Amino acid sequence: MVIETFSANETFEYGKKMGLNAVSGQVYCLTGDLGVGKTVFTQGFARGLGIEEPVNSPTFTIVQEYEEGRLPFYHFDVYRIGDVYEMEEIGYEDYVYGNGVSFIEWAELISEILPENRTEIIIEKDLEKGFDYRKITINEMKG
């Protein structure tokens, strides 16, 4: 599925719509260049889960936990990960195979340990279509 947005607010709102429909145990893998809107999309998703507190990219902590929504929300940013063994150290499997919703930014960096059943979200810019244009591609992966 491909969605096109033309403003940060539209990207946020689409993320929110996905968050409203999220169910326990889902894993979302978010891919896109720096500055493409991954955090805006994630903030919308969190709002859809009922999380009101600010959601920022956990670049220096690898994972942020949010428990106030209708489901626990685990927001990973693995951009600075050295290797997948670091993921084991933080209890990655407990999050991903738990009862919450996991959102993994830069997921392609840990592709070898991603669950077979996941939703891949790719966000891309196309400056020819406008500065705020985003193409959001969603692929359901089934093992």
Characterization of the model:
By secondary structure, the protein is α/β, with parallel strands linked by helices. The chain has one domain (2-141): 3-Layer(aba) Sandwich (Rossmann fold), CATH 3.40.50. The chain is built from four helices and seven strands. A seven-stranded mixed sheet has the order 1-7-6-2-5-4-3. A hairpin with an 8-residue loop joins strand 6 (118-125) and strand 7 (134-141). The longest helix is centred in the first third of the chain and has 14 residues, at 8-21. It is globular and about 40 Å long.
The number of helical runs is 4
Multimeric organization: single chain
- Going by helix content, strand content and strand pairing, the class is alpha/beta
Give the strand tally: 7
Note the overall shape.
globular
Q: How many discrete domains?
A: 1
- Which percent bin holds the helix content? 10-25%
List keywords for this structure.
143 residues, Rossmann fold, 4 helices, 27% strand, globular
Task: Describe the SSE topology.
Elements: E1 2-5, H1 8-21, E2 27-31, H2 38-48, E3 63-66, E4 73-77, H3 85-89, H4 92-96, E5 101-105, E6 118-125, E7 134-141
Parallel strand pairs: 2-5, 2-6, 4-5
Antiparallel strand pairs: 1-7, 3-4, 6-7
Helix pairs in contact: 1-2
